[in-house]
Design goal:
- Helices cover about 45% and strands about 10% of the residues.
- The protein is mostly helical.
- It folds into three domains: about 100 residues, no CATH class; about 110 residues, Tyrosine recombinase, N-terminal domain (DNA polymerase, domain 1); about 250 residues, hpI Integrase, Chain A (Orthogonal Bundle), CATH 1.10.443.
- Strands 1-7-8 form a three-stranded antiparallel sheet, with helices on one face. The protein has a three-stranded antiparallel sheet with strand order 3-4-5, with no helix packed on it.
- A hairpin with a 5-residue loop joins strand 12 and strand 13.
- Helix 8 crosses helix 13.
């Protein structure tokens, strides 16, 4: 049932209004409307201290198919028109109750009438509510707008896979990297997937769009620092001039923290004195979930030597003060490259003769870009963390934990080639299947040597017994056993060890390692 009515509200009597009474004794207030200049006449309430004004348009009250009451504005002051609108709403309710009108189709139709700009605003709000960082949200929305504008899409019906594929092809033809194209396609595909999930699209129009493999055309390859390169960088930076508002010692400590923890630039920026636990055993620093890439709290261990230096550095700082007064993001990379250049010049000046100097000038040592095109920037310090851990022989799961990778696949794809001796060790562990002793033993076990044997004994020797023994053992992986005697605990590599001073030499020995207190091979810093 639908009903129409006008809402009546009381308002103070306007200043200067004339109070009049009609023949039936009802009192009215007359005054000149300020907006239109016309004379208005409205009745007074029973007390005579306020005017009663009805709404201009009729309101419609009705109950939907689920019995919920709704009140809508008819948008018209004409009673007959309002009654027709109310009748249409009543008929729609009856059709929904009978299942003739599909609610899902109606929702799709409503969404289709909205512009993509409106949907993008809702998508942006959903990402923010999900805890995405402001940088991620703005970057994603920017990529989506870029594609929508380039393709000329205005409504949901405009979105087509062909248009997005043409956009990606144009980027490739302009020389953009596969990673650049992938980032934009990831953004627009996440948008259409959200539209489909929330019932705004019946199907995802971009489900068939394939993203390029960024590894096939990677333009920016970062390189790790060698141990000797870090020795030179540390020594020259600590004694260097102030840069971008940071003293040489502050920059040296920043680089050391980045290498030992694997923290990114933004995560290092978020460190405050209250996030440094330097008296713990072992000492560690923490980064809050709001400042990390994976939106999870991070606890990263550091060496006692660095902890002592940090304790001295923050001695006069307030608990909420930033540990490092880092410059804005682009200047962090410039600052690092300037310090790297200073270290290279100092290393070059330390050459003992002309031949040695020429050799150093032609070397990749301390160069921002090596002969393979790999670049050194601030993020290279994080790459150095994982590379040194792998070179030190730590278990891949330990490296994954320290680097906070989402999967072991990412760890192995990035650092798998650095884990030492895996291929040789794997081959060496195989039995000498071509040796005469093994062949002879197999013949005796199977009875082909003429001595005879039964199949049960054969299975026990070469099958069941071996599997049972292997299943009953806890294979040693270099970690300390837990209470049950199984070596299944993966301690975090604290990168302990005293840094050896080899700044006087330019030779790189990435395999130089020291065993930590926990039995884990860790690089020297």
């Amino acid at each position: 049932m639908a009903s129409i009515y006008r809402r009546t509200r009381s308002y103070p009597i306007p200043d200067g209004a004339e109070i009049v009474t009609n023949r039936s004794g009802q009192r009215f207030a007359k005054w000149a409307d300020r907006k239109t200049g016309r004379t208005r006449k409205e009745p007074l309430n029973a007390d005579g201290d306020a005017v009663l004004i009805e709404s201009g348009n009729y309101l419609i009250a009705y109950h939907d198919a689920d019995g919920k009451r709704h009140q809508v504005n008819s948008g018209t002051p004409n009673r007959e028109t309002a009654e027709q609108i109310a009748g249409r709403l009543k008929d729609d309710v009856a059709l929904r109750r009978r299942g003739i009108i599909n609610a899902d189709q109606e929702q799709l139709a409503t969404a289709g009438r909205q512009t993509l700009a409106q949907h993008l605003t809702d998508f942006q709000a959903s990402m923010t509510a999900a805890g995405r960082t402001s940088d991620h949200v703005s970057r994603t929305v920017g990529f989506i707008r870029e594609i929508l504008d380039a393709a000329g899409y205005v409504t949901l019906a405009d979105i087509k896979a062909d248009g997005v594929n043409r956009y990606a092809s144009d980027l490739t033809n302009k020389g953009k990297s596969a990673r650049t194209v992938q980032a934009r396609l990831t953004a627009i595909k996440s948008f259409t997937r959200w539209l489909t999930t929330h019932g705004k699209l019946a199907r995802d129009p971009l489900a068939s769009v394939k993203k390029p493999n960024p590894k096939a055309d990677r333009r920016l390859e970062r390189r790790m620092l060698l141990h000797d390169e870090w020795d030179w960088l540390r020594a020259t930076t600590e004694q260097g001039p102030e840069r971008y508002g940071m003293t040489g010692r502050e920059r040296m400590l920043l680089y050391a923290v980045a290498i030992q923890t694997g923290l990114r630039s933004g995560e290092c920026r978020s460190l405050t004195r209250g996030r440094l636990f330097l008296d713990s055993a072992p000492p560690y620093v923490t980064a809050k979930a709001g400042n990390t890439k994976n939106r999870k709290d991070a606890r990263q261990y550091i060496q006692p030597g660095l902890a002592a230096e940090l304790a001295q550095h923050i001695e006069t700082k307030a608990p909420g003060a930033n540990v490092f007064p880092m410059p804005e993001e682009t200047n962090v990379a410039r600052m690092f490259r300037a310090d790297l250049a200073d270290a290279w010049r100092a290393w070059l000046a330390a050459a003992v003769d002309a031949d040695e100097r020429l050799r150093r000038e032609q070397s990749d040592f301390l160069q921002a870009v090596n002969h393979e095109g790999e670049r050194a920037d601030f993020h290279s310090l994080r790459h150095t963390t994982g590379a040194w851990l792998a070179l030190a022989g730590n278990h891949p799961k330990v490296v994954q934990t320290v680097m906070r990778h989402s999967s072991i696949t990412l760890t192995m794809d990035t650092y798998g080639h650095l884990f030492p001796g895996q291929d040789a060790d794997a081959v060496a562990s195989l039995p000498d299947i071509l040796g005469g002793d093994i062949i002879a033993e197999a013949q005796r076990a199977t009875g082909t040597d003429g001595g005879g044997s039964n199949m049960a004994a054969n299975r026990q020797q070469y099958g069941s017994k071996t599997l049972q023994d292997a299943a009953g053992r806890c294979e040693a992986d270099g970690n300390s056993p837990d209470e049950s005697g199984c070596h299944n605990v993966l301690p975090i590599n604290t990168l302990r060890g005293k840094r050896r001073d080899v700044a006087g030499r330019g030779e790189s020995r990435p395999g130089r390692i020291r065993t930590s207190d926990q039995g884990i091979m860790s690089p020297l810093l």
